[in-house]
Design goal:
The protein is an alpha/beta fold and about 500 residues long. About 30% of the residues lie in helices and about 20% in strands.
């Protein structure tokens, strides 16, 4: 790595500018000296070798697309001369067997969390109000505000999660809404849950309650607003019961293996795959070795990098389940008449990411190199120790909600451009570049930009300290700002 540019592997045919560079600048990358032929924005790519039209461009040691024009060494490589090579569904072949590494929790780090009666661990002790339908979303929020005023200091908080769905839905679309709400109700961070219905909606209270995993049903209270004279008084009474039952719980020392961590990226830039996502990858490997759970989602953002993930499957059944989720998601795009490569976003492109392959190869680094131990459909629980692949789209709010519904009790969210939004579980925002961390300290919990020039072992240890501190009760930036939201993946017609 030079002071101003780097290539990730020895076989890469492009390198990344670590700062804005002028045409004519001489750049040393490894043993090469390249003269830039155009001005280059920070985080953007330039060619280390000549490329013919149609020839693969290599970054992260893998193709990130094909040149659409002749490219000379020193040329800026971006949307004007590089395009995706992705297509539709594929017949994947499992190329190697990955045996799970033995867990090693001895001498590992600990954290302070709430141990639930079902054996799972929570990072927060909260009451959640989940509306069955959008019609009672504001009612839920009002009930939460009043309950927080009554019970300040007794629990970690009362939170309502409004959404616009639950009625005018049919079939699998309704089932998906019900499944993700049921998964949220089962999350360990919710010591008690009020399921608040209207009464006439498609997503009926009883059916939703039956969808909640059996081990979590004891913490539920159900309320139909149409069936009560004063629904606010009834909600207050039920919330008070839940606080009474859960308010006495205290944090205890727990092993690292008790953590279930969701992985997420949003507003990525070219540095995400160089700093923040590899940081999460090293953390994920550490947690997986300890026997903890790591949940990777955003299926469309692994297209182009999926084979490396599939090769990590621990057995044939896991491989086949992962292939089905990936190809099913591709069919979802194709059936809607859309290309599977309709990504990256405008913000990603401005930050230096050109194709979905490039974005995906950076994104999958969040899950490190640990074996793929499980696959969960949308709304299902992630039960396997190690890495689980979770079905959900790339949309920040939808995928972050799915992570909480899968049982994650803390989420790690890498970003190159920043976002203030928070989700049901503590969500640490990790900046890929120090400029973002400096500009938005009220958004960002950790600066991974230091990895460009710092000692990785020291950075990894500092990051682990930060994760465990927030898991143990220190509020993350989004929590301090009161940023809490959910979003549901709606896939069907609206009546």
């Amino acid at each position: 790595m030079s002071a101003i540019a780097c290539a990730i592997t020895d076989c890469d045919t492009v390198a990344v500018a670590l700062e804005a560079l002028d045409a004519g600048t001489r750049v040393h990358v490894g043993g090469l000296e390249v003269v830039l032929r155009q001005d280059l924005p920070k985080g953007h790519k330039f060619a280390l070798a000549a490329h013919r039209p149609g020839e693969a461009v290599i970054k992260y040691g893998h193709p990130i697309g094909r040149a659409t024009a002749a490219v000379a060494p020193g040329d800026w490589v971006h949307t004007h001369n590089l395009a995706t090579a992705l297509g539709g569904e594929l017949d994947y072949v499992r190329r190697e067997l990955r045996e799970p590494a033995p867990f090693d929790a001895k001498g590992g780090r600990t954290w302070n969390g709430y141990l639930r009666v079902d054996g799972r661990a929570a990072t927060r002790n909260e009451i959640w109000i989940l509306p069955t339908v959008g019609c009672v979303g504001f009612t839920a929020e009002q009930a939460a505000r009043e309950a927080n005023a009554r019970h300040a200091g007794r629990i970690d908080g009362v939170h309502a999660f409004a959404h616009p769905h639950g009625c005018s839905q049919l079939g699998d679309d309704l089932a998906g809404t019900r499944a993700v709400l049921a998964g949220l109700a089962a999350n360990p961070n919710a010591a008690g849950v009020l399921l608040l219905g209207l009464g006439c909606e498609s997503n009926q209270l009883a059916a939703l309650a039956e969808t909640v995993p059996e081990h979590a049903r004891g913490k539920l209270r159900l309320l139909s607003a149409q069936g009560e004279g004063d629904e606010m008084a009834a909600a207050a009474r039920l919330i008070d019961e839940l606080v009474e039952e859960s308010g006495a719980q205290r944090r205890v020392e727990l092993p690292l293996s008790a953590l279930t961590v969701g992985l997420k990226c949003g507003g990525s830039d070219a540095f995400s795959g160089l700093t923040a996502n590899p940081l999460l990858g090293r953390f994920s490997d550490h947690l997986a070795r300890a026997g903890g759970r790591v949940v990777l989602t955003e299926i469309p953002e692994i297209f182009g990098a999926e084979q490396a993930l599939l090769d990590r499957a621990v057995d044939e059944a896991t491989f086949r389940a992962a292939v089905e989720v990936i190809n099913r998601f591709k069919r979802y795009f194709i059936d809607a008449g859309q290309p599977v490569s309709e990504n990256p976003s405008p913000g990603n492109i401005a930050g230096g990411i050109t194709t979905l392959e490039e974005k995906s190869l950076g994104a999958v680094q969040k899950a490190g190199s640990a074996p793929l131990a499980g696959v969960a459909n949308y709304g299902e629980q992630a039960l396997a120790a190690g890495v689980t692949l979770l079905e959900a789209p790339g949309n920040d709010a939808v995928s972050a909600t799915a992570l909480a519904a899968a049982g994650a009790t803390v989420s790690l969210f890498t970003t190159g451009r920043g976002t203030p939004l928070g989700f049901p579980i503590p969500t640490l925002k990790i900046a890929s570049n120090s400029a973002l961390a400096t500009a938005k300290p009220h958004w960002i919990d950790f600066d991974a930009g230091a990895a460009l020039n710092g000692d990785l072992a020291s950075i990894d240890e500092s990051f682990l300290d930060r994760v465990l501190a927030i898991a143990s009760g220190e509020p993350c930036a989004a929590e301090r700002a009161g940023q809490r939201a959910i979003a549901i993946w709606k896939r069907g017609v609206t009546l």
